[in-house]
Amino acid sequence: MATPGQIRRRTIISFSVFFFLMAAACLAWYFIQHQSTNNGIPTTFRSVLDANERITRGTIFSSNHAAKTYPVSKAAEAPRVNGGIGLDEPIDTATWRLKVVKANGDTLQLTLADIQALPKTDVVFNFKCIEGWNQITYWSGVRFTDFLQHYQLNRETGFGYVGLQTPDKQYYVGIDMASMRLDQTILCFAMNGKPLPQNQGYPLRLIIPVKYGIKHLKRIGTMFFSNTRPPDYWYERGYDYYSGL
Ligand SMILES: Nc1nc2c(c(=O)[nH]1)N[C@H]1C(S)=C(S)[C@@H](COP(=O)(O)O)O[C@H]1N2
Ligand SMILES: [Mo]
Predict the structure, then answer these.
(1) Distance 1 CA to ligand 2 centre (A)
(2) Fewer CB within 10 Å, N- or C-terminus of the chain?
(3) Which residue's CA lies nearest to atom 20 of ligand 1?
């Protein structure tokens, strides 16, 4: 049995530890709230995201990273539509061009027919949005590596990142070249074997199965290459730049 003296001493110790930890938690919270921010979120949280990116790149990419694929029969017939930033104006194939800004400053201007003339690749995978939904979907287009090779974008391939923007520049993403060069990454012009619906990126969108939905830019206008991270719409609003799965 503890004596009243021992109980009092233990009570004092317990309360002291409790108040000490509370004070430490409050100080940590105050510090995180009042420190500088990095692209919209406190530096502490941002560095956790960046550490996650280093772990994902280091461990998963070493083993030829690919998303799980499914038979076409498993794909949704009417895939969900999400996110319409940069899709306000109606667009027509006659005037649309994919603009590719090359390393030497020249810009390629490609029609949809130019892109469809390249070998076609299908991908059926589980599309995941950071909002929490996912869906098996079926897409077709031109593998990004086939595209680079066909247009002899050799110098461009040496850059660390690809930047993509809608024609009106309202939505934009930046993606690491390693992820762009995976076999499942396509410049996509068809969904369920038919041309893309307007609200799902007609005439051309990105499909990159190793990333969350935010990176699958719909309605590509301009593509450029860079060694620093290109601007990224949702990164600027606090999300993870890498957004890998
Ligand atoms: N131009 C553009 N592309 C976009 C978005 C957007 O708002 N604008 N939203 C993204 C998000 S958050 C998701 S989940 C997917 C949704 O693609 P879906 O409409 O084909 O399902 O598109 C991505 N691409
Ligand atoms: Mo999303």
Answers:
(1) 61
(2) N
(3) 200
Q: How many CA atoms lie within 13 A of 245 on its CB side?
A: 22
pLDDT in tens, the chain (245 residues): 677 777 777 777 777 777 778 877 767 777 777 777 776 677 878 888 878 777 777 655 544 689 999 999 999 999 999 999 999 999 988 999 999 999 999 999 999 999 999 999 999 999 999 999 999 999 999 999 999 999 999 999 999 999 999 999 999 999 999 999 999 999 999 999 999 999 999 999 999 999 999 999 999 999 999 999 999 999 999 999 999 99
Distance set, CA 240 to CA 7, 60, 93 (Å): 50, 17, 33
The single-letter DSSP state of residue 77 is S
Dist. CA 104 → ligand 1 center (Å): 31
Q: CB-based burial of residue 155 (10 Å sphere; 0-12 exposed, 13-18 middle, 19+ buried)? A: exposed
